[in-house]
Amino acid sequence: MPYRRLPNTDNARIKALKMAVEKAESTDFQDLSISPNVLSEAKSVLNHFEHLCLRYQQMYDTQIKANKSFLGKVKNARMYISHFVQVLYLSVLRAEIKEEHLDLYGLEAASMVVPELTTNEQLLEWGQKIIDGENSRILQGGVPIYNPSVAKVKVMYSLFKDSYQTQKLHQKATTRMMNEAANYREIVDKVIYDIWEEVEKCNTDLPPEQRLAINRQYGIIYYYRKGESVE
Predict the structure, then answer these.
(1) How many CA atoms lie within 13 Å of 221's alpha carbon, on the beta-carbon side?
(2) Quick one: which of 18, 21, 101, 202 could link to 33 by a disulfide (CB 3.0–4.6 Å)?
(3) d(CA 53, CA 13)
(4) Tens of pLDDT along 56-81?
């Protein structure tokens, strides 16, 4: 005998509910295989779950689109900060800037090596240190570094920082909606289970072939074990 198995994807859940609702709506009341109460709940749950899945997909798509722009800003910020530090070190080697002024940038123990800028958090930390350090040195009468200037570095850093915060908001919203949809699956699965239980109970006295055919029209999915006939 075939056995049934509840859907394991959101699209499959929606499809199962839609099949049951559409079958019920196209069937005379006296011939329905599910009760009015379960049908009403199925319609409500279907509408809400479709909305949750749609909102999640919209937020996910927005996050992915924004991430493409964000990655460009990450690349520019990393390039400008790294370049600035390299020029700073060259200026120290040429004695144009005193080595002790590296303290202003937090680079006193860096051994003339560009700091690690792999993660977004490292970019946030070192970008701010470099900008603050250059501004402090200039206030003390130091000659500004050019190519790139700290103003250009600050522009690239600010664009990155703003985009980073925006991306964090996108991720938070997407995660919240994903969790909301995931938590609602238990309700969806319960309704699908109730539909299938009522349908099978209603049609239990029909001949096997006719019973399975009608049950499938309500969205019930049957599986056959290996070697079992599908007839």
Answers:
(1) 12
(2) 202
(3) 11
(4) 999 999 999 999 999 999 999 999 99
